[in-house]
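User: Structure please.
Assistant: Input sequence and predicted structure:
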Amino acid sequence: MDLQINGKVAIVTGSARGLGAATARRLAEEGARVVITDILSEQAEATAAALRADGLQAHCIIADITKDAEVQRLVDETVAHFGGIHILVNNAGFPRDKYLVKMSEDDWDLVMEVMLKGAFLATKAVMPKFIEQGWGRVINISSRAHFGNPTQANYSAAKAGLIGMAKALAIEEGRYGVTVNCVAPGFMETEMVQALATYDTIKERAVAMQPIKRVGKPTDIADAVAFLASERAGFITGEVLHVTGGRYG
């Protein structure tokens, strides 16, 4: 299937590694020109270099998406380098898991700042471009955790917030040819997850609760994002695509 995103320009936040890096690669393989952006400078540069080594178009911009000025610089540099912006994937995020009674204010604020404020600032920065050209795609990377997980009050709240934001913006921006959707991953085998001391236990429990008896791969998420970013998904907006192996609760 031709996704018809050849030549489009995509920013993928938090794309130095993991789901973000896989998503950037998938979009680039479809012909998009991608911007790798993260605060992990060495890893982000290496990810962009690996794409270019494979003949794909990629540019790296180091930016902290919790700061408005840096987000605006990210967008301005993207437009200067590639000539436009058409797709935004709000992927940046991380957990700070603790039971609520042990969760600090910093644990709460850091998760909210990166996932919710970062997505707000990035989306706000690209939206004038999308409106002006009458075409745009925003894909928020939520999580199955939006249903709720113990020790993840902050993470679950942020991921649910991304869904609420997407649904509101889908209504607000649809008249301009802009779609806003979410992808909600289930248990994914990423570097961050594999580094957890409890990885094997979490993996066993997750697979036992899924109809599809394997762990998710970053490419599973990348394929879903690529579809929602495409011309083929132009009549889909305000939706949440769960990529969870069939697990919801």
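The first helix runs from residue 18 to 29.
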